Amino acid sequence: MMTETASETPIARRFPVDFVWGAATSAFQIEGAADADGKSESIWDRFCATPGRIADASDGRVACDHYHRSRDDVALMSDLGLNAYRFSISWTRVIPDGSGEVNAPGLDFYDRLVDDLLEAGITPFPTLYHWDLPQVLEDQGGWPARATAEAFAEYAGTVARRLGDRVTHWTTINEPFVIANLGYLMGEHAPGRTDLGAAIAASHHVLVGHGMALDAIKEVQPSAEVGIVVNFTPVTPVGDSPFAVDRQRVANDYENRWYTDPLSGKGYPDYTVERLGWDQREVEPGDMELIARPVDFLGINFYTRKFVGAIDGERGERGGVTSMGWEIHPPALGRLLRFLDESYDFPKLLVTENGAAMPDTERDHDGRIADRDRIAYLAGHLEQVLDAIDAGVPVGGYFAWSLLDNFEWAWGYGPKFGIVEVDPRTQERRPKQSALWYADLIRSSTIPPIDRP
Ligand code: FCB
Question: Where in the chain are the domains?
């Protein structure tokens, strides 16, 4: 609720003092050092090397060279006043064969990163899997095969044994929907397969892998906070014919409830299981209990919403779009947070990714990128987070996507999501105006006024 002083000047609302303020990245998108120190090939290395897969024919071989610049990047985060950093760990650095022998130098890199973060007062939030599956495991069946979930749990235990004396917050998997569907159904992401049966099997094994990994971490470190990161694209209905309503239901179940329902013990959404004709042959006794192990928080990645009607591409009234063509509609985040709070019992919600690719063509007189559009995007979404907190929704933190301009998967280096610019020739980092604005926000715990683009 907005409080007013006698002079009617609104007092800005504040975020809670213990709010987690971070930025997020992922290993493949920033590290580079593609085969340094014993790292093996991941499915993204292979995908990038396959002609026609990446829009600008680029790859992650150098990326932001974070593997060699992590010290400086931590100093940058510290200058911005971040109190948390969400990054991912590359499985191919730690266990190059997917399972079995541990590669010490790979683990040493994350060990140093964690130490540097802690020294700078920044809480590490590692994600164990952000899409870079060891290619050797894909060759044995990938996520559609149950053995991948077992190997994932082994890897999670290995990392927890090494870092668990310092890392207190873990996320297992990033965006199960994207892993299963962009990777195994639409073929737009590695490994580039197009098979619905494989995608559904992958979706189940990713959740099983999450449950097994959670157990493995808690076995080493019972007090650790462990969560999973799920992406949501809320469905806005267009039209109410029975055909449209059926499509809306299936889209919403498949994209938004397919993971949170089983994670909270409700099982897969029946209606859509039936519509997909899935016989659940992959579900073994005990799986649903394993998937529903209590998490300490749910990570939420939110970028945009989608319209679903009777006809493909049908659209309601749309707002502005980012350079990905994604509609900018902050109220959908507010509604999503309230929906998650009302429908499930997750003890805490964290916005683990939110941000926008923008053209970044304007500079101020210092030559700094003047990204008022990105600032407006972040401010609009953070207003929704504040409203949700005021309404009693337990949102405990927010991570801007992304700390750095980086490798945006099948789009290559075209889209710029960073709050910090990276010069691809020199690797020089330069905070954009949005980074300075975010730093102000963190310092004051209030949303600074914005100059709308
Ligand atoms: C999310 C991914 C992240 C980044 C953003 C734009 O789906 O988790 O790596 O690509 O989208």
Answer: 20-444
Is 362 assigned a catalytic role?
no
Residue 2 has pLDDT above 50, yes or no: no
Which two three-digit tokens encode residue 394?
Answer: 């337990």
d(CA 412, CA 175): 19
Contact 210, 291 (CB under 8 A): yes
CB 68 within 8 A of CB 33: yes
Check if 138 has its Cβ closer than 6 Å to any atom of ligand 1. Answer: no
Q: Is the CB of residue 30 less than 8 Å from the CB of residue 66?
A: yes
Per-residue confidence band for 5, with pLDDT thresholds at 50, 70 and 90: very low
**Is residue 110 in contact with ligand 1, taking CB distance under 6 Å?**
no
Q: Is the CB of 45 under 6 A from ligand 1?
A: no
What confidence tens digit (pLDDT) does each residue in 354-390 have?
999 999 999 999 999 999 999 999 999 999 999 999 9
Query: Which CATH class for the 20-444 domain?
Result: alpha beta
Instruction: Give me 154's structure tokens.
Output: 């082994």
- pLDDT for 450 equals 83
Q: How far is the CA of 130 from the centre of ligand 1 (A)?
A: 9
Which ligand 1 atom lies nearest to the CA of residue 29? 9
pTM: 0.97
Which has the closest alpha carbon to 19: 330, 350, 438? 350
Convert the pLDDT of each residue in 10-31 to its tens digit. Answer: 667 999 999 999 999 999 999 9
Give yes or no for residue 178 CB within 6 A of ligand 1: yes
Report the C-alpha gap between 402 and 413 in whole angstroms. Answer: 13
Which of 282, 327, 353, 421 is catalytic? The answer is 353
Candidate of 125, 229, 408 to mutate for ligand 1, largest count of ligand atoms within 8 Å of Cβ = 408
Provide the 8-state DSSP code for 411.
Answer: G
